[in-house]
Design goal:
Layout: H1 2-11, H2 24-32, H3 44-47, E1 53-56, E2 59-62, H4 70-117, H5 127-177, H6 182-250, H7 257-312, H8 316-325, H9 340-343
Antiparallel strand pairs: 1-2
Helix pairs in contact: 4-6, 5-6, 6-7, 6-8, 7-8
Main location: Golgi
Keywords: Golgi apparatus, Membrane, Phosphoprotein
Protein name: ADP-ribosylation factor interacting protein 1 (arfaptin 1)
């Protein structure tokens, strides 16, 4: 038994035919160890080969590889994780902060609107500006009604012109086929065609009137109403933060409430400046709008009056002169294209 025990270490070394030691096991171990450095502890059997392996206080050296301390590796992994966590949380925190501010502002404004509707809350009123805004909205409704009536007139006039052209063609046909009434049918045919032509001129003038007033209503006035809506929203915010500050000032003043009062005072000042700026902008815009509106409507109403009067007076020359005065070119959809002789 002692002899077997003595031979047992030597028996672990395989010998080739030439009596040389077989190092294949060590080569295999050297290839495997670098992949399993952190997989488990190194036993004392592996430490018995100081030529290839070494372990010094947590440092593992295998062949040409450089030892890496476990503490340094842990610090690198921890530091990298912290940076990634900051990058991920930063946008989320910003979004949550924006959502929080929006929710607070929406709550305050909704509370202010309900208080005003229930007659419990006070609101800031600029009597002169509010009167101008109300007049503008009322005028917009009236202008839209005028545009609708003018469009109806155009539709009816176009139908009448179509009937006049057909009636003129019928008279002309009968003038050719009825020799004894040739002149009578011919006069009526020319009259209906002339009325249809003058009607087309009047139709062009009315369409130009509609287009100009519609531009005034849908573009100029509507743009001003958008600014008015922004002004009203700024007014609600201003009153909401004003009411909030008044409620805090009525309460007790201690170490807990003083920071809230100071913060509320800052918010109130910001919304007050915004409200004043919007109020001035709306006042200036209403002034320019009034000047532009008077100028546009002055020209368009003269055009409409002169065209209607000349048409029903049968003054073809005056009707055509009215269109030239306002630089109106007749281009009616579905209308007949004038011949080369008529154009020249």
């Amino acid at each position: 038994m002692a002899e077997e025990a003595y031979r047992s270490p030597a028996a672990q070394i395989s010998v080739t035919r030439n009596g040389e030691a077989d190092m294949s096991h060590e080569e295999v171990f050297q290839r495997d160890v670098p992949h399993n450095i952190n997989s488990g502890p190194i036993t004392s059997h592996f430490q018995s080969s100081p030529e290839n392996y070494a372990m010094n206080e947590g440092v593992v050296q295998v062949g040409p590889y450089t030892g890496i301390t476990l503490s340094a590796l842990t610090e690198q992994q921890t530091a990298g994780a912290v940076v990634l966590a900051d990058d991920i949380k930063s946008p989320a925190i910003e979004k949550l902060e924006l959502m929080r501010k929006w929710s607070i502002n929406t709550y305050k404004c909704t509370k202010q609107i309900l208080s005003e509707k229930l007659g419990r809350g006070s609101r800031t009123v600029d009597l002169e500006l509010e009167a101008q805004i109300e007049v503008l909205r009322d005028n917009k409704r009236k202008y839209e009604h005028v545009i609708k009536l003018a469009q109806t007139l155009c539709t009816q006039l176009a139908q009448m012109l179509q009937t006049q052209r057909q009636l003129g063609d019928a008279f002309a046909d009968l003038s050719l086929k009825t020799p004894e009434l040739h002149e009578e049918f011919g006069y009526n045919a020319e009259t209906q065609k002339l009325l249809a032509k003058n009607g087309e001129t009047l139709l062009g003038a009315i369409n130009f009137f509609i287009s100009s007033v519609k531009t005034l209503v849908d573009k100029t006035i509507e743009d001003t109403l958008v600014n008015i809506k922004q002004y009203e929203a700024a007014r609600i915010e201003y009153d909401a933060y004003r009411t909030d500050l008044e409620e805090l000032n009525l309460g007790p003043r201690d170490a807990n409430t003083l920071p809230k009062i100071e913060q509320s005072q800052q918010h109130f000042q910001i919304h007050r400046e915004k409200y004043e700026k919007m109020r001035i902008d709306v006042s200036v815009k209403l002034k320019f709008l009034e000047e532009n509106k008077v100028k546009v409507l002055h020209n368009q109403l003269i055009l409409f009056h002169n065209a209607i009067a000349a048409y029903f007076a049968g003054n073809q020359q005056q009707l055509e002169q009215t269109l030239k005065q306002f630089h109106i070119k007749l281009k009616l959809p579905g209308g007949e294209t004038p011949s080369w002789l008529e154009e020249h």
